[in-house]
Design a protein that fits this description.
single chain; mainly beta; Jelly Rolls; 7-stranded antiparallel sheet
């Protein structure tokens, strides 16, 4: 794979150090999703020049929770010395709740945001071509690490189709004015599972479309998403139904109408939202 196409997506990483082959590139973004442990007083996320403990750190992001206040410190470690700190107040990262840190790599700076809120433009002190490692400390329960294009695709191929115990995992944030979010599990002739949240109606609709014809709707009140707040959706494919959970809480079920699960080959996410990742995971 050419460096210009280099992509990385790791769901439930088992290590706190992740290598980026070919190094950072302008226009790409680094995504870290997880939970800070409830008893932690700080966290670090580093973009490093190697995996050694003494490696230079081009970008050090350091949320701190001290004396009842939360803030974020930024710095660079080069040639054995820390540079001058920069900081922002009022961290949007809350302990023991899912968060997403996004780092967009530009020519001049790292554009850093958390849970969709812009935090800092941190100007480069070390050339991005020297950066090849993402490192986090042990104060986080990691959910996802990604190195991707600046605009993520809203479609994901499901390799070898669905099967019982295969999971679809989606991370995102509905826009503050979001009117709807739709998740579609598609096959060649239609939509096996259509999961539609309509915010203005405060309703969730489930349905199936085959050969251009929609079946009877299943509709319930109450949306498991909050506009402007980070979410994780997991759709678990079971033998008889789909189980939908949001942020770890069971939300809905939907019995299979289209039963040729192996023919379901695309996950599609639509609506007014910021999308971080769409993953299809084998059991």
């Amino acid at each position: 794979m050419a460096n210009s196409e280099q992509q990385l997506a790791i769901y439930k990483p088992t290590t706190a150090i992740t290598s980026i082959k070919g190094g950072l590139q302008e226009g790409k973004r680094v995504i870290i999703i997880g939970r800070i442990l409830p008893d932690a007083d700080r966290l670090h996320v580093n973009l490093q020049c190697g995996s050694d403990s003494k490696a230079d750190v081009a970008l050090h992001i350091n949320p701190r929770y001290e004396k009842g206040s939360a803030h974020v410190v930024y710095n660079t470690y080069q040639n054995g010395t820390w540079g001058s700190e920069q900081s922002t107040p009022d961290s949007p990262i809350v302990k023991d709740k899912l968060f997403a840190i996004e780092i967009l790599v530009t020519k001049e700076a790292y554009k850093i945001s958390a849970n969709g809120k812009h935090l800092k433009d941190y100007e480069h002190r070390i050339p991005i071509t020297q950066v090849n490692t993402i490192s986090v400390d042990q104060n986080i329960k990691l959910e996802f690490i990604g190195y991707q294009n600046s605009v993520p695709p809203n479609k994901k191929e499901v390799i070898n189709g669905l099967k019982p115990d295969k999971n679809i995992v989606i991370y995102g944030i509905p826009n503050p004015d979001c009117k709807s979010i739709a998740i579609n599990l598609r096959h060649r002739y239609g939509v096996a599972f259509h999961y539609l949240c309509r915010f203005e109606e405060n309703a969730v609709i489930r349905n199936t479309n085959e050969n251009g014809i929609w079946g009877p709707e299943e509709k319930t009140e109450g949306i498991p998403f909050i506009q402007g707040q980070f979410f994780q959706v997991k759709i678990s494919c079971k033998a008889e139904q789909y189980d939908v959970s949001v942020n770890g809480q069971q939300a809905h079920t939907y019995k299979h109408r289209f039963t040729k699960l192996e023919e379901i080959d695309v996950v599609e996410v639509c609506g007014e939202l910021q999308l971080f990742s769409v993953e299809a995971k084998d059991p």
